[in-house]
Amino acid sequence: MKIIKLFEEFEFVTNQKVEVVVGLLIRSSKGRFFLVHREDGGRFWSLMSGGQDESDSDDITTIRREMNEELMLHDTSNIKIEYVGEENIPGKRRVFRYYIGHVDKEFDVHLDHENLDWGWFNPQGYSIINGHRHTWGLPYPLYPGLIDKIFNFT
After folding, report:
1. Is 127 exposed, middle or buried (0-12, 13-18, 19+ CB in 10 A)?
2. What CATH fold (topology level) applies to the domain 19-152?
3. pLDDT of amino acid 4
């Protein structure tokens, strides 16, 4: 009887829907990375990301919709987007699909309520926050694992 119960619990868990989150790390021709300071208690700076809606036809549609909603960036056609890979989020029924983007010209954005700040950051140089404040290097704290993505960007 215990074996059946465990099997039923296992079946219940495996039949749950997996949430898809799509992320985009954008690098400009100046070598700076576009990051947002998420409104999740103000803890982390992160790459642009968001959950995939049922209406999204694919990951790129998700990325472009999220940039429109969160950044008020309506034209994203100048971002050259490439697929990198997929990561399973430990302890959650969530998969993270990761993309890199290239732009020639850095853009300004207008944030919605999901983000506190934005910037273009050079890991070893001059960086810009919110289009006008200036700083050096990467912001702190970065979302766990983001530093590796930045330094592995090709």
Report:
1. buried
2. Nucleoside Triphosphate Pyrophosphohydrolase (3.90.79)
3. 42
